[in-house]
Amino acid sequence: MFSNHMLGLLYDAPKEWQEIGQEPSETISQVYLRHALLLALIPPFALYIGSTQMGWSTAEGELVYLANDSAAVIAVAFYFSLLIGLALMSFVMHALEHIFGSTVSYERCLMLTLYTSTPLFLAGIAGVMPVLWFDVMVVLLAATYSIYLLFTGVPVLMDMPPAKGAVFSLLVTLIGLCMLVAGMGITVILWGMGIAPGYLPG
Q: What span, in angstroms and rounded, lies between the C-alpha atoms of 98 and 117?
């Protein structure tokens, strides 16, 4: 059912959101066990393969590889950060909805977050080919479509008028960007403290 809905969201998002909105929400455990745990594996696993087997291409044309143990630690941390981020963004939606006159459940917010973030999860496959410009392009395209899904899905799943839904979606997008910047900042701090990945010569 989830895969069918995702195909529908790629083909005709407004129509598919209407169908999703008529279905009962899954429980938190169902969302994670049936969908999130598997989807969140895609980016870390792809990046692990790409960084240890394919190598990152530098500006000089050299290939840089991560050590297997270092890449594994990063992949595991990335995996759990994606799952936590999914829960946090759903919590943000649930906390903000009352300001916009909506009273849907946290489970509903979680389903909306999962559907809208799925293009980003799937874009993680590009990590198998760790070429910076290519990966950035794929992620930007996926992020653009995720934002489109958010703006079209909020009025339906959050039960909001389109105008309020647009403002709500914009606010959620800005908060998501702030969380991303904060995560990058934490990464830089950790690297500055000496917790940096181990590299192998190409």
A: 22
**pTM for this predicted structure:** 0.88
Total Cβ atoms within 10 A of residue 134: 12
* Helix, coil or strand: residue 57: strand
Mean pLDDT by 10 residues, the chain (202 residues): 82 90 88 91 92 74 79 88 93 93 92 94 89 87 95 94 94 90 70 57 56
Instruction: Write out the two tokens for 72.
Output: 């594994």
The domain spans of the chain are: 28-200
Nearest to 53 by CA among 44, 63, 43: 63
Give CA–CA dist 107/30, Å, rounded: 10
